Amino acid sequence: MNGSLTAERRTKTILSVVLGVICVIYVLPVVAVIINSFKLNTFVKTDTFALPTGEMWAGFDNFVKGMTFGNYPFWNSVKYSVVITVLSTILILICTSMAAWYIARVDSLFCKILYFLCVFSMVVPFQMVMFTLSYTADQLKLNTPYTIPIVYLGFGAGLAIFMFVGFVKSIPLEIEEAAAIDGCGPLRTFFLVVVPMLKPTMISVGILEIMWVWNDYLLPSLVLDLEKYRTIPIHIQYLKGSYGTVYLGATMALILLSIIPVIIFYLTCQKHIIKGVAAGAVKG
């Protein structure tokens, strides 16, 4: 008995050490960004992991330079990132939750095929469709911050529908039947009965979509008119001087500013992700 307890403790200790090392590896890039955002540009390359002390210290000059560099206002990039993220998340949550409810409740061949197509879309690499997508978005005038959420809806629907369908199947059908007996139509049943019960999964999907859209670089760079609209990741990419010189200190400063809201948002809402994923995994 004591031998088995000792072996179990040893296993837990080894797992803790291994997971601790993995956590350190994942945190190192973030630490490097924080350290280098306060260094002079010349020391970012030569002393990457050294603390910004003495002659290395740049203070907040990197933040000022990053926000004022070039002829494109940084706050415009912040505005467009917020607009795209908020509109995309709202559109994905509303459309995919309604579609998932229909798929889960209507037992037909069409719904089964639609569900498997949505799940299959999660494994299709973006690189396979990006050139066709860019051309299509340009032809349909989806190349503005106010229309690109439609494109994000197409790419975010797969995961969202997969999670929503799993949760809806765990909701007793009798609740919706009781609402129908009381005179609720499909829309009232969905918004007054189903949506409140979908709250854990909605929060989880919303958090994941916000993190994805906020940090996305490739899709906006392909679809948007970059002379008019730039998100924060695109703005950071333009921190270049003459002859290809990159202002690494200013770049690190803007990267830090861009990840702070996401980190705070994720740490605040991470418990909802666990609840929503667990709820959506009750039935497949």
Keywords for this entry:
single chain, 284 residues, mainly alpha, MetI-like fold, 0% strand, globular
Compose a concise summary of this entry:
Helices cover 73% and strands 0% of the residues.
Please characterize this protein's 3D structure.
The chain has 284 residues and is mainly alpha-helical. It has a domain at 64-94 and 122-156 and 170-280: Orthogonal Bundle (MetI-like fold). Helix content is 73%, strand content 0%. The chain has 13 helices and no strands. Helix 8 (173-181) packs antiparallel against helix 9 and helix 10 runs antiparallel to helix 13. The protein is globular and about 75 Å long.
SSE layout:
Layout: H1 2-36, H2 41-46, H3 61-68, H4 74-105, H5 109-120, H6 130-139, H7 148-168, H8 173-181, H9 186-197, H10 199-215, H11 218-223, H12 232-237, H13 248-280
Helix pairs in contact: 1-13, 3-13, 4-5, 4-7, 4-10, 5-7, 7-10, 7-13, 8-9, 10-13
Oligomeric form of this entry? single chain
User: What is the arithmetic mean of pLDDT?
Assistant: 85
Give the % helix. Answer: over 70%
Predict the CATH topology of the domain at 64-94 and 122-156 and 170-280.
MetI-like fold
CATH architect. name of the domain at 64-94 and 122-156 and 170-280: Orthogonal Bundle
Cα distance spanning the termini: 39 Å
| SSE pattern, N- to C-terminal | HHHHHHHHHHHHH
Strand content: under 5%
